[in-house]
Amino acid sequence: MFQIDFGESSETVVGIDLGTTNSLVAYMDAATPRVIRGEDGDNLVPSIVSLAPNGEIVVGNPARQMLIDRPDRTVYSAKRLMGRGIGDVQDELKLFPFRVAEGSEQVVRIQLGEKQFTPPEIAAFVLRQLKKNAEAALETQVTKAVITVPAYFNDAQRQATKDAGRIAGLEVLRLVNEPTAAALAYGLDKRKKGTVAVYDLGGGTFDISILKLHDGIFEVLATNGDTHLGGDDIDNLLIHIALEDIQSEWGEDLSIHGEAVQTLRRAVIAAKESLSFLPSAQMEFAFHGKTYHREITRELFDRLITGIVDRTLGPCRDCIRDAGVSVEQIDEVVLVGGSTRIPLVRSAVEKLFRAKPHTDLNPDEVVALGAAVQAGILSGTLEDNLLLDVTPLSLGIETMGGVVSKIIHRNSTIPASASESFTTSVDGQRNVLINVVQGERELVKDNRPLARFDLKDIDPLPAGMARIEVRFLIDANGILNVTARDARTGKEQSMDVRPMYGLTDEQVEAMYKASIDNAEADFHARQLAEVRVDADAILAATEKARQSDAYTDLPEEERQAIAKAVNELLLLYHGQDHLQIRSKIEELNAATMTLAENMMNAAVKGALKGTKL
Amino acid sequence: MAAEEICWKCGQLFSGHFCNACGAIQPPAANYFDFFELPPHLNLDAAELEKRFYALSRRLHPDVFARRSEREQRYSLDATAVLNDGYRALRDPINRAEYLLKESGFDIGEQKSNPVPPELLEEVFELNMALEDLRSGDSDAAPQLEDARTKFVAMREHIDRDLSAKFAAYDESESRELLTEIRGVLNRRRYVRNLVNEVEKALSGYVPN
Question: What fold does the segment set B5-91 form as a domain?
Fold first, then answer.
């Protein structure tokens, strides 16, 4: 017998790098991953979202200007808030101009003008833009994607990313860790065997992963990182210094001026970027007629950021230890993320790993390219490659006295599972509560709560007689799935799941529907624009025809019919009903039929005459 | 080895991860030795285990089933979880022995409820005194702890040699009495390992002036 592939389709699966600062989309062009550019020709879509005063959502480069003009309606670096509650983000709020709305305990809500959005909705706007760019470039519908996340993202942050995809109308086939994706992009046609370290310092997150390559299998041995460490921190440090300078020079505290801080941010970023290849840079800033100027040398810059760069080294050492390898065994180091352009970062990495890091691929693009490779693997076009990733954090359950019992250890290859047996402690007890946490600490309170599972409707039995088998399974996306079974009856055990952070499925669904309504509005606007283009064309052609002899030769009633059709089209032209406009175009088209024929005949006659000459 | 079962898809008999007749992926075997199609031995060829792990990963991983039916995707996820869990358990000799004991119906004692092995009572008592001294700032205890560490590390190495011999003997005889003995040695090893960890923690936290 032969094997049949069910549901196989040739639909393009795109790979998306949903970054803190910039986002990209890529696809597999035969066997080569390629980044898709936007209409503006830029490979990067800045992860900036703005709500224009007319209610329109603006994403990417156009939103960049809004960041300065309307900081109250614009958000950037929202990835820092993904999957987090208000309690988690207090530090971020001091540094970033996030306007957090009421009711942000489980999910942060960001105020943009008069509306509120959760981080997954903000991310969905960026994803929708990438989807649009891909659809325009590939000339086909795109509904499936692989999206990358920082390797050190926890369950809630991963779930939030998946939710964002859903809200944007994308089926997320896989979440891939960013450093692993980078290794995939690098390793495709490179070495067959070896050990590789990927150092990924982006806008807002830091990851380090160590992989073993084995004939097309990319096996992650260990990963470590900090989900709140990146280029943003360098920017904030420089902004802070500049603000203090300005305060002493001008006697004015600009930190409360959103517009001033954003302008300053631009100046700081420009200086930071040029310091990657120049020995010194000028930081220039003008506000309300005053100017601030300061020269920063590479030496000073290095001294300022040493603390930030050093914060990446501890996780690197831990990762090497956890991978069970020595520094000498690491054959190659790959640099990923825009912040790895900084010379101090490069030299720190080189010193730690005692190897010159690889930089052949554009560090901004490499993650998206790797996501496209994974999309190719999932579509079956790249059969020899396989990614085996790990879970970055241990999974534990609460036991007596608030102590954590680890059931799946960090750096376990995923999918990974663990089964635990639970029972009752009181006669006739009907419910058992399981508190699941993520993290490495001994006590529940020091770890991150993940969810509470309430096993309910347990058969009333004497204490200790019930036996509920609970299976915890971390899937290939790094997301926890839990199932429970009554071991006596073999029946599935019902339970309530209360995620501690994040959106419920119902909320995600509602957001998706709302976004479809918005998409319909977009669609409508496009149809209206298209029909007006057609109307413009026929109106212009008619106007021109009215100057011709053929028009003068027409019978009076035909000329009147044409005038009537023109007037009716003009009347509806600025209306909102594209179908009505379309029907008036048809009417004008019909009314000018004879005129067009006559003009054609005249033209043919003229042409024939011409041949006689 | 895995028994013959009936394929969910075509109804034919099969054994292993895939149906011989129609090629459909099957629900995974729960026992790790069965899953890897290896004998339930305490000494395993690490290279062979790794080879099987990679080969099975290529065939079972969810990436390979991304375009298949929901049911096949579920089996692939379950099978890969068993594959990874099993590889973790079997690749380390101690974990492997504990797994085999558990599968053979032995209760693997939790470290907290472990009584002090009688022959270690006196040394543990002295060690605890020294640890107490060091924690309260008495640096004279440091050399004594260094000695203790050397002694316990040597003890652990001795235990490992003993285990290795017992593992080989078990693989020959598959005798239950040997498993009981092995369980005793494993408990002792765990106790000694915890002592080593504790001493190392105390010494690494202590900075000589």
Answer: Helix Hairpins (1.10.287)
